[in-house]
Amino acid sequence: MTDNAILTITALQERVEAIFAKAGLNPVQAAALARVIVAGERDACKSHGIYRIEGALRTVKAGKVRPDAVPEIVEQQASAIVRVNANGGFANPAFELGVPHLVARARSHGLAALVVNDCTHFSALWPEVEALTNEGLAALVMCPSYATVAPTGGNKPLLGTNPVAFGWPRRDSTPYVFDFATSVAARGEIELYRRAGKPLPEGWAIDAEGEPTTAPEAALAGAMLPFGGHKGSAIATMVELLAGIMIGDLTSPEVLDFLGTTTLAPRHGELVIAFSPEAFAAGRPGDPFARAEVLFDAILGQGARLPSQRRFAARQKSESEGISLSREEIAQLDRLLRD
Ligand code: NDP
Ligand code: PYC
Q: Is 189 a catalytic residue?
């Protein structure tokens, strides 16, 4: 007898969607949220899978996100900027609404940006990147979070874990995609270490007194650290500037002021930039997609792997064998459907 249960991707989607519908989310919110959470489980990205459901529900209960929001396009005609107001709902349905407009404008201008305002965002960014690489576009996505990371040289939470993700489309393969927090690890990872009762690796966090710690509780009460020292600190600051201040939305410290806690999902904006590689390479020698393959082959030729290879392998396994969940996880889903 195994300790795990296997669910098809469709069965998990239906279950998660039903949990959100029962909590009062309208169909557009419930379906988009379930899609991104199930994609996290399918691709073995546990820090942004079903573990996020309870946080999303707490945020609804606390009145910090509108479960009945309907996102809308804020028209900026002929501009390379597409703006969607999530109207206080989750980011994912707003992103889905904006994507066809972003794709069309990136194709006609060579470069376009999607700005999502007034949204709650708790998910991984790679589903958003892949929506664009699937259309043959390169993409760069970023958003702030809430103040949980000390800038390098500082000792208190100020910056967010501010994820940055990038994707490059490939003709005969899954796209090149990376997606990571600009902190050493995502906050979700620290929470998973806490739940597992395991110490953190060295160098992830400091405690409330500014001393290095490997205790997840102390790290959650203290501050996380940027990846790569001053380099990650600067990139996280860039995210605050471009995907917070520049788009007229909240920065990570302002998000924490708005929420008053890090136990709810953060509300802020998001910036998605789409590039047409053909348009940028036009008139220059060589096909950009063929040249990219030469680079990828050289990376692989050294025995390195490409980012997202682990994830795509997990996806393939889930698609053929289903998604494996522990008994505790199934019990959690049952409880959320029942209570
Ligand atoms: P990880 O450090 O786990 O992974 C980051 C990326 O690096 C992935 O694309 C991963 O690919 C790749 N990678 C890992 N190891 C290797 C390797 N040896 N060689 C090549 N590539 C590698 O990510 P984080 O913990 O920093 O972030 C996890 C998630 O959290 C992200 O999806 C991020 O968007 C999300 N997040 C969301 C936030 C929000 O506010 N919404 C805030 C912070 C984080 P692979 O997946 O194949 O291993
Ligand atoms: O894992 O750091 C994180 C995170 C913050 C908001 C959503 N995910």
A: yes
* Nearest ligand by distance to the CA of 312: 1
Which residue minimizes the CA distance to atom 24 of ligand 1?
180
CA-based angle 37:43:48, to the nearest 5? 40
Catalytic (active site) residue 109: no
pLDDT tens, residue order, the chain (339 aa): 457 999 999 999 999 999 999 999 999 999 999 999 999 999 999 989 999 999 999 999 999 999 999 999 997 777 999 999 999 999 999 999 999 999 999 999 999 999 999 999 999 999 999 999 999 999 999 999 999 999 999 999 999 999 999 999 999 999 999 999 999 999 989 998 999 999 999 999 999 999 999 999 999 999 999 999 999 999 999 999 999 999 999 999 999 999 999 999 999 999 999 999 999 999 999 999 999 999 999 999 999 999 999 999 999 999 999 999 999 999 999 999 998
As given in the structure block, the two tokens for residue 293 are: 């393959």
Q: Is the CB of 120 under 6 A from ligand 2?
A: no
Ligand 1 centroid to Cα of residue 338, in Å, is 33
**What's the pTM value of the predicted model, to 2 decimals?**
0.96
Residue ranges of E strands in the chain:
4-7, 72-74, 81-85, 111-120, 138-142, 164-168, 176-180, 205-206, 212-213, 223-224, 267-275, 323-326
State the complex-level ipTM: 0.98
81-85 and 111-120 beta bridge pairing? parallel
Task: Find out whether 246 and 238 touch, Cβ atoms under 8 Å.
Answer: no
Residue 47 falls in the annotated catalytic set: yes
Q: Judge if the beta carbon of residue 26 lies within 6 A of ligand 1.
A: no
CA distance 332 to 256: 28
Please pick, among 189, 254, 270, 329, the residue that the annotation labels catalytic: 189
